[in-house]
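Most newcomers find our protein records easier to grasp once they have seen one. Read left to right, the backbone structure tokens trace the chain's path through space. Once this layout is familiar, the rest of the handout is easier to follow. The record below serves as our worked example for the rest of this section:


***
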Amino acid sequence: MTAGRRYPTSSPVRFSLVGAVAAAAAAAAASFPLPFASALATTASSSGGGGGLPGGGAGGSALSSLPLDLLSSHANAYAAAHGLQIETKKVPPPASASDDDDDDNEDAIDDASSSSSSSSSSPSSYQSAPVSLLPNAYPSEMFARARSLAVPFNELVDRISRDGPFLRETLGGDVSDADRFTGKLLELYEGIYGDDDGADAEERGKFARGADRMGIQRSDYMLNEASASASASSGDSSNNSGGADGGGGGGGRKKYELKQVELNTIAASFAGLASNAAGMHRYLTSRFSDEAGDFLRENAGAVAGGTSHDDDDIPEDGEIGVPENPALVRLPRAMNVAHERYLERFPESAEGATSPGVLFVVQEGETNTVDQRMIEFALWENHGVPVVRMSLTAAGDDAHLRLDEDTGALYIQEGKYSPNGGGRKEVSLVYYRAGYAPTDYPDGYDDGIEWRGREKIERGRCAKCPNLGYHLAGTKKVQQELARPGALERFFPSSSSKDEEGGGGVDGEGEEEKVKAMRGAFAGLYSLGSDAAASDLDAVRDALGGGDGRYVLKPQREGGGYNYYGKDLAEKIRSNVNIDDDTDDSSSSSSSSVIALGKNLAEFILMERLFPPRQTAVLLRGGKVEGAGDSISELGCFGTIVADKEGRTVCNEYGGWILRTKFENVDEGGVASGFATLSSPYLC
């Protein structure tokens, strides 16, 4: 992507002359986390002299008039008063604590789990979370479309989790061989839910197969300019959910498609902080409507490709401004549904002294604890359900967590983790904010204590969020396989009738409409494994023939920072393929060349790179204005589902949203890892 100009400063002061930018950026770079330090250095070297207003982009003139001191002061005060904060520790966290499953993705913004009880004694303090000072313009129609997709994607994940042959065909073989972590997850899944291992598997999985399943998914999307998509993707665009007019700019209006970056099925985070960020942005845009009005209108115009919105362009059911974020109501509510279901299924537990509660499996040394605590507190305040926090390492120790082999009940043992120093406590639901990356299993693959803990939990009769099937359904390889023609129909048999049970769907439509809507959100996705088709190899040729800027190379790994872009992408692929053509030039690839993919590429997929609209943003980190300039955003929509052992849906609904914003010349996008900030959509 074209680098945008940024004008950093190390303190929340009003931006002044462009000529001061380079010095300010160089001074600020030394004090920022590495990802931002390198970006600031780039800004310093490219800002040059010249005239013009700080900030660049469509919002430049409005940016220069923003009262940054005033707005940032109120933003920091709001963050402190409402818990819009992250924890900082005096000891360095482990590498995997950089982000929950906020996941990598093309421009994703990751997030992280939480600190466990074992690390609670580490000295820590709190500071304002990384945020965008003001919300980012977002088309109302596209926001509504993303929200409507939550229910069918929830259903899709549940149905995939029950299809062992599909998961085996998709993730076994060369994918598991190249990625041991995915292979280990699949091995556990087949050992507990598979039907090919005889009596031993039947016995090991008898309680797990009878358990309810719960999912908190987050589907991440980017707006993609339709013309950019047409030039970058060779996929079928006839199934697109439809481009949307970006707003009311007359003939200059742009059209955008809503495209899925990824579907996160484990440790999808920032629901709590995003809810409070929405409150902060509603406060700032209403309290300082005069001061911020021009800035918001110019950004709306930038996204629209013309002027700001006209009320006639908003759908009848559309919204304007920062929408309500129900995440802190709906996520805990779904957890309570799973908890109450457990009490109904096992009434002897509800009446006993062990008093079931929810277990949060968390990372040690985590800094995103406030986000998790918000869900914990809401679960207690709204539903009276207690939470215990424990790491995977502790869960693997029977002294802390024990599975009753006769009943399938999972017990937090009396001692360190028992609430209020009381006796043992039964677990009704396990909620993972860890376990999505190999670094969460430091004791190794061969009988490591963390893997023993994961297997122990999975075998229990309690609900898991997610279980192994849901976890595997969120892998990049599954995402790529679902984009193949006919793949979605495997899980949604075509029907012209509407959902008789009223279990949800897109606007109440039947299976056929759900498939059409989901497929319309898929970007171009290409296999690099032994199942690569002609269209996949064509994409490889394009990437090696100078089109590397049109793709992202993505591994199965979650957590951010693992993707390849541009020349690094081309080099990674080139070093793992054999090309046979008439030119004998390994630096290029003609349409007639024969390409043999190396085995090491099987753990990757190739994804169409998306081109979202740019708009001006002012980003804050640690309570200070860090910079301003062209930015891009990614919208995540949460969905919650609880289903029984037969696949009958107990509840299934949209669960809220998160918007993450970063400067447009930054490839990766983790909030906790220092790449991006929390923002809110300003619907227009």
Notes: The mean pLDDT is 81. The longest strand covers residues 624-643. The chain has 24 helices and 24 strands.
